[in-house]
Amino acid sequence: MPKHSVIAWMTALGKLRAKEHLSRIGIAIDNLCVMCGLQEEKIEHSFFKCIFSQQCYVKICKWLDIQTSPMDHINRCWRICKRKFTTKKKRSICFAALAALVYQIWYARNCAYWEKSVPWPDVIVNVVMHNVCNRVRQLINEKWSQDWKVWLESLVRRLI
Ligand SMILES: [Zn+2]
Fold it and tell me: How remote is the CA of residue 141 from the centroid of ligand 1, in Å?
């Protein structure tokens, strides 16, 4: 999923253009978050602290069977994934899910900005889960262990 990775990488570097930046250069009228309308839109808010993003993270973590608290966000998810999943494949699935989620949040944010409609978190989460499952299904081969296939099947069963 290269597009997801690029967005995740750009987010890490804080390079995405939030309204904070657009309002500074005079393009946006206000600098409120287009998803919640409650706080100033900054990269950190959009991806980590916005109630919309947090609802999505909690759902994705539940799907991946990762314990979360309501105030958790993607960085903590990633640390928990690394601790909980000791195999490279499971970690890479978790990372793919989190990267896909960041991409979908950014996509949803742009739809909200340009089309003035905010999707339900379930819609975003559903897209992420299906993308990840479809991608992983393409990679399955006879060398995969039974344990690994069972884990993957459990993820597919828990799709919304
Ligand atoms: Zn917000």
Answer: 41
Distance 84 CA to ligand 1 centre (A): 29
CA 36 to chain centre: 17
- Tell me how many domains the chain contains: 1
Residue-number span of the structural domain to which 119 is assigned = 2-157
**Mind listing the pLDDT tens digit for each residue in 29-76?**
678 898 999 998 888 888 888 999 989 988 988 898 887 766 666 666
Q: How far is CA 72 from CA 81, 103, 106, in A?
A: 13, 18, 18
Closest C-alpha among 55, 27, 57, 58 to residue 41: 27
**Total-model pTM:** 0.78
Ligand 1 center to residue 32 CA distance, Å? 8
Angle at 112 between CA 124 and CA 122, to 5 degrees: 20
Q: Residue 101 and residue 6: Cα distance in Å, rounded? A: 12
Distance (Å) from CA 52 to ligand 1 centroid: 7
155 C-alpha vs ligand 1 centroid, how far in Å?
29
